[in-house]
Amino acid sequence: MAQQDIKTSGQQAPGLRRELKARHLTMIAIGGSIGTGLFVASGATVSQAGPGGALLSYALIGLMVYFLMTSLGELAAFMPVSGSFSTYGAKYVEEGFGFALGWNYWYNWAVTIAVDLVASQLVMSYWFPDTPGWVWSALFLGLMFLLNYISVKGFGEAEYWFALIKVSTVIIFIAVGVLMIVGILKGGEHAGWQNWTIGDAPFAGGFSAMIGVAMIVGFSFQGTELIGIAAGESENPGKNIPRAVRQVFWRILLFYIFAILIISLIIPYTDPSLLRNDVKDISVSPFTLVFQHAGLLSAAAVMNAVILTAVLSAGNSAMYASTRMLYTLASEGKAPRIFAKLSKGGVPRNALYATCVVAGLCFLTSMFGNQSVYLWLLNTSGMTGFIAWLGIAISPLPFPSRLHAAGARSQRLTVPFRVLPAGADLRLRAVPDHYPGPELPGFPARQD
């Protein structure tokens, strides 16, 4: 392999602008996966798998994602391109592999936009139960479109503040939960480890239930790989990407593990509000329920507003990721060239238009109901997300040998390759093991 085939790419993709600063990239990394998966769908994991099963599922998939991120961050810092792992898959594995990975990832995030738009309908029904859901989807789709239409800096700035609100909310939620459990705030009279002994807890449904909720848990963590997509428009990827990657482990520990633990200690998994058997009121998230237990009734409405912010943030990130992936595919000849056209501000607007068309799946709610469509799209997005993770796990494997064959030194890299074999083995085993296959009807298995 020629020396020039392995080199750091300090240059941005033609036409794209490196306008994402360190604070933007860090908040994209921290807030990219804090959305409907945590705020809305986390209750279903506790109700189906029990408190212990849900916590273990989040911990195991979180560990897998950590190893995925270290390997992706290594390549993204070394070769910061907008296509990220699609480009890496084509370069280091096989051209067809990169082609399939890129199209799968674009579809994954385009569908995720639809998921978040349907979730926005469910959240808005908390205040406006009589307003048709498609009205809210149309309004918020237009907002996401405008944030991504102008420039990448506009996206980065909006996502920074969206993520800051989400991070602050999760920290406040954990603090309130701890105060309830220790008895300082009211509402914690029945909180504690006794909720881990109710019924079949802590592992309700056993191992099969854990595997069953893996799709929802996987959806929750989707977004951690967004820094790979943003690398092509980062100001200083060699410095900023490793810093963002280092945030992943602590984010997993604090924002997911602690939040699920608080929910399971305060709300019994048998509580029907956690959607154990069917979807009755998904707009009341477990976060809102905890605040209601604490007697902070006005805070429940505020929490729903925060959830709406999180939904819009996740959708905003999804639109950015899918648009940039489609642009990269077109630039590399793997999609119609029309999607590679850029505006004067460096935005691939044709790719943005195409992504919005797929996001229009959210309007199926007018025919099938918002709750049914939400869970159907959630499963579809989770399925394609696991496929993308498998591709991300495979893409870096040939990199060390090719790097050494080209005469480069691994000591230049952020993570020395000597620490990666165990992580590579874990992520390759874990991704297929935690992929249970799609549940096309969109409903969890009934537990009578």
Automatic annotation (TrEMBL):
Xref: Pfam families: AA_permease
Transmembrane residue ranges: 25-46, 58-85, 106-128, 134-152, 164-185, 205-227, 248-270, 290-315, 351-368, 374-394
Recorded topology in the membrane: Multi-pass membrane protein
Database matches in InterPro entries: AA-permease/SLC12A_dom, Amino_acid_permease_CS, APC_YAT
Primary site of residence: membrane
GO MF annotation list: amino acid transmembrane transporter activity
Top-level lineage group: Bacteria
Keywords from the UniProt entry: Amino-acid transport, Membrane, Transmembrane, Transmembrane helix, Transport
One annotated Gene Ontology cellular component of this protein: plasma membrane
Residue ranges of domain Amino acid permease/ SLC12A in the record: 24-423
Cell compartments where the protein resides: Cell inner membrane
The UniProt record lists the keyword Lipid metabolism: no
PANTHER family per record: AMINO ACID PERMEASE, GENERAL AMINO-ACID PERMEASE GAP1
Designated name of the protein: Lysine-specific permease
Organism lineage: Bacteria, Pseudomonadati, Pseudomonadota, Gammaproteobacteria, Enterobacterales
